[in-house]
Amino acid sequence: MTSTSPTPRTRPRRSTGEVVLGVDTHRDAHVAAVVSLVGAVIDTEEFPATASGYCELLKWARRLGTVRRAGVEGTGSYGAALSRYLLTQRVEVFDVNRPDRTERRRRGKSDPLDAQNAARAVLSGRARAQAKSGDGPVQIARMYKLAKVSAVKARTQAINQLKAVLVIADPSLREELAGLGNAELFRTCARLADERNDDEDGGETVLQATRMTLCLLARRIGQLTAQNRDLEGRLARIVERHAPQLLTVVGIGPDTAVTLLSTVGDNPERLASEASFAALCGVSPVERSSGSRQYRRLNRGGDR
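-> C-alpha cells emitted (304 positions)
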C-alpha cells in the first residue's frame, strides 16, 4: 500500500495585464478574488479586516496584475473602511449587490464564490454604482445625523414613559404636577430626588419609587435635549461651510440638506450624468415593454 502526499498548492501566475478585484466583506475577515479580463479566476485569498489586512490584500492583488477596478460587497457597512483605503490607492471601487437567489441556487454559496461574482459583476458592467468615498464633511455630517436621530428617538421615548408614570402616580403627586407645561414639568420632576427620604429599614414606598423614576426620566430628557441642540448646531455649521447654497432653497433646512448630502456622498463626481442622478433618486424610467406593448414604469430603487 503506497501513501500519497497532499498535493501542494500551485502558485498562481501573475497576469501580464489588468485584473479585476472582487471582495466579499465580513466583520472580522474579507475574502478577495482576482479575476482576469476574460473572467478566469487567478487566485482567491482571505485577509483580516484590519488596516494591515487591507494593505496586504491590495499588495497581494497587485502581485497578480494591474488593479484599477474593484467590486466590493457592502461598501456602506463591513466594506466601508476597505473601500476608503482602495480609493486612496487610486482603485475605482464599485458597490456590488448580493447575487440573487436564482444565481445562488445554480452556482452555490460560499465566500470565495461571492468574491469571484463581485469581480465578474464589475467586469460585465452589471455593477456600475461607484462607492462613496466617506472621507469628507459629508461623512462627518452623516455621523452627527445618526447620533441626532438616536437622541430624538430616545428623548421621545423618555417623555412618553414619564407621562405614562404620571398617569398611575399617587393622586397627590399627580395634582402637584398638573397644569405644568412640558419644560416646567421636566424641571420640576428633575428636582424630585432631592426630597427623597428612605425608611429606617432601608425600604421604599411606592410614592418614593415613583418620584425617583420621574426624576431619572426628567434628567435623561434634559441630557438628550442638550445633546440634540449640540448636534443641531454642528450640522448647521457643516452645511453653512460646505453647502450654503442648499439653505437658500425654500423648505430646506440643515436636516434636509444633510440628508441630501449623505445620499450623494463626498464624491458627487461618481454621478456622471443626469440619468445616474435620476436613478439615485428613484425617478428614472425602467423599460417594461413586451411584444407590441411599449411602455415604461417608474424605478422603485434609489433613495426616493
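The two ends are 69 Å apart (CA to CA).
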